[in-house]
Write a structure and sequence with these properties.
It contains seven helices and ten strands. By secondary structure, the chain is an alpha+beta fold. Strand 6 (73-83) and strand 7 form a beta hairpin.
């Protein structure tokens, strides 16, 4: 009985060491994550093997695993101050959708580290945005060129960061804020341009209506000339005779004097219903 405490203490110590060993030797990687293995006695960061995938893993207790979020993520850069082509200060709100390149996660950790967004992505977005916006005037930024600017920032950012093991999926220009005086001047100019376009439209419509009326009048005049040319005396007499025959067949009483009218046309003297 006296020996039990002496035997139990080493067992307890062994169990304690075993628990620590197991806790240091196991790692669980969650959904949308991947792990970079660091071998303390084997060359440091592992870059020539695939990252540790989701799930439970056993590693040597003296090694370490650095866990990265490999899902698509977003960072928002608000109130970014840039200059337009004529030197006016513009404020941009930009969102970037990104994720680390999965197969290059070891290289990303070795060369940039866990703080890679602040080290690489944010400075590059700022530099590219300044470069792109500097090619345009405030009027272009405010109206027609926002989509083009967004696409250019995206394409140029991709070129810069792809070699640094980061994948950029989209760049979204959320807002462009101009100085108030410039914004009001642009809006005033746009209203004037719209009014001028509307005025030109009304003039064009009136011109088209006048042209339509002219063509219609010319058509009617031509038709009357053709009709007048075709109504000879012989045709008129023939039409008069046809009308006389129809009147004579009418049940109404009347007096028709044949050949007494002008050019020998009949005269209708009267009639009662």
């Amino acid at each position: 009985m006296k020996n039990l405490p002496k035997v139990g203490l080493p067992v307890i110590l062994l169990a304690f060491v075993l628990i620590i060993f197991i806790s240091k030797s196991s790692i669980n990687i969650g959904y949308g994550e991947a792990g970079v293995l660091f071998k303390t006695f084997g060359g440091g960061v592992v870059v020539d093997e695939a990252p540790l995938s989701e799930g439970f893993h056993i590693i040597a207790p003296w090694n370490q695993v650095y866990i990265y979020n490999v899902k698509q993520q977003e960072f928002f850069e608000g109130n970014m101050q840039v200059l337009s082509s004529n030197g006016l200060e513009i404020s941009l709100d930009v969102s970037v959708l990104y994720q680390p390149v999965y197969d290059e996660l070891g290289l990303l950790h070795k060369t940039k580290g866990e703080n890679y967004v602040n080290i690489v992505l944010i400075p590059q977005i700022r530099a590219v945005a300044r470069s792109v916006v500097g090619r345009y005037t405030p009027e272009q930024l405010y109206s027609t060129k926002r989509d083009a600017i967004q696409n250019e920032i995206f394409e140029e950012t991709v070129k810069v960061v792809v070699s640094q093991h980061i994948q950029v999926n989209a760049v979204l220009v959320r807002d462009v804020t101009l100085p108030l005086a410039i914004k009001e001047a642009i809006e005033r100019k746009l209203r004037q341009e719209q009014e001028a376009l509307e005025y030109e439209f009304r003039i064009d419509k009136a011109r088209q209506e006048a042209e339509r009326q002219r063509i219609d009048a010319e058509g009617k005049a031509k038709a009357n000339r053709i009709l007048s040319a075709s109504l000879t005396d012989k045709i008129l007499k023939e039409k008069g005779i046809e009308a006389t025959i129809k009147l004579s067949e009418s049940p109404n009483s009347k007096v028709i004097v044949i050949g007494s009218g002008k050019d020998g046309m009949p005269i209708i003297l009267g009639g009662n219903n």
